[in-house]
Amino acid sequence: MDFRTLPEAHLDRALDHAYLVFHDEADEKQRKQHRDALLRCERVGAYEGERLVGLAAAFPFRLSVPGGELPAAGLSFVSVAPTHRRRGVLTGLLDEMWRRCAANGQPVSVLWASQDAIYGRFGFGTATRAYAVEIDSTRPLALRVAPDERPLRLVDPADAPAVLGPLHAARRAVRAGRIARDDTWWKDEVLPEKDEDDEELSPPRVVVLGGGTGDTEDTGAAEITGGTGGDRVPAGYAVYRTRSEGPGEGRAAGLVRVDELEADTPEAAAALWRYLASIDLTGTVRAGDRPLDDPLLLMAADRDQVRVTEECPALRLRLLDPEAAFAARSWAAPVDVVLEVSDTVFPGGTGRFRLTAGPDGGVSYRPGDPVDAVGPAGPAGPERPADLTLGIRELGACYLGGAELRRMVQAGLVTEHTPSAAARLDAALATEQLPHTLDGF
């Protein structure tokens, strides 16, 4: 087996391979979109002779982390031919990808897992979680928060990146786990005209609250603008699609599917949810990817009207260079702990490491050093014992602040040798808002 760069000349072969493995098919437009996506990726092919039997690609993302952002490899198109399973193809693909991540200065890798058990073996931990919510909109949405009464307007999807981009960037700054978007990503991934999973859904609709106003046309519920609408940043926006179920016995009212909703205040969020739940000829609002600390559940006056239908893992994260990753994020409290880490992929990642960090900077993650027997100027004593024993998977899961080591101790996944060590590290990793991921890839 040979693991090497997949050349542009093999892109169509790679797509045929991926569609086979994922039991998928694509029309000409979707195939072009997937081809363009692969062109933007680092690509590794597994070859048996000249036959392509495995594929892995990585988007060069900028991922928001607490207090900043860092380069990240967004794994996608990972697939092994059904004739070559359990022959080390996936291991070889990822080994080669990790080598390239190091060369590209990417200290973390992220992915969406179709099979969680597989990627846990390679050190990926669940770094963000999400819930799905359903609103009964056959009656007015009851809220405990007075909605922001600034005007709403519908924005042409072609103009949406310019209008929504500043607010999206501002929300990335306060919520970890989100990738930076360019115009191509907005167009192809966020606002494609057709939804690949449900062709009965409408094209994307974009509604914004506040901000500038351009030339508008009165539509009753909102205003629609064909321009960027001034230079002020909206207070909030929602991206959604609709589907009309039509008349007939046993047929429910139409559906509003919310793909994205961002707001800078609770009142702005209330205004957007009220709008979505009041669209004519619809009776259900579904949002499938909301952060676990979304204020909607608290602001709903009737939880029978607003209910959680699912909670699930979302983005998986793998620490490739823990020292660089820890240095890139902010810390909520000072911490000094020794971690006994196991890493089945990188031999250098296994061992005893002392992590020191705090709000004032000066992050250090290095092999465990001796404890001073006398003091700062005295001779070195025995090696400092570990406070916590854990795997790189658990360390990656808590990196963005979305998982608590205390819960992992209770589950038997982490061993605490020093009382309250897990709580102290949790306090240092804590974030004001839970991490949340919007973009699938």
UniProtKB/TrEMBL annotation:
Biological process, per Gene Ontology: aminoglycoside antibiotic catabolic process
Alphabetical list of SUPFAM superfamilies matching this protein: Acyl-CoA N-acyltransferases (Nat) (SSF55729), SCP-like (SSF55718)
Catalytic residues, chain numbering: Y119 (proton donor), F441 (proton acceptor)
What the entry lists under Pfam families is as follows: Acetyltransf_17, Acetyltransf_9, SCP2_2
Membrane-spanning ranges: none
Which CDD domains does its entry note?
Answer: NAT_SF
Keyword Nucleotide-binding assigned to the entry: answer is no
Q: Is Lyase set as a keyword in this record?
A: no
Task: Indicate the segments forming the N-acetyltransferase domain, all copies.
Answer: 1-146
Sorted alphabetically, the keyword list is:
Acyltransferase, Transferase
GO function terms (MF aspect): aminoglycoside N-acetyltransferase activity
Q: Where does acetyl-CoA bind?
A: V78, S79, V80, R86, R87, G88, V89, L90, T91
Assembly behavior:
Homohexamer; trimer of dimers.
PANTHER family, per database record: N-ACETYLTRANSFERASE EIS
UniProt family annotation: Belongs to the acetyltransferase Eis family.
Protein name, as recorded: GNAT family N-acetyltransferase
Q: Which organism is it from?
A: Streptomyces armeniacus
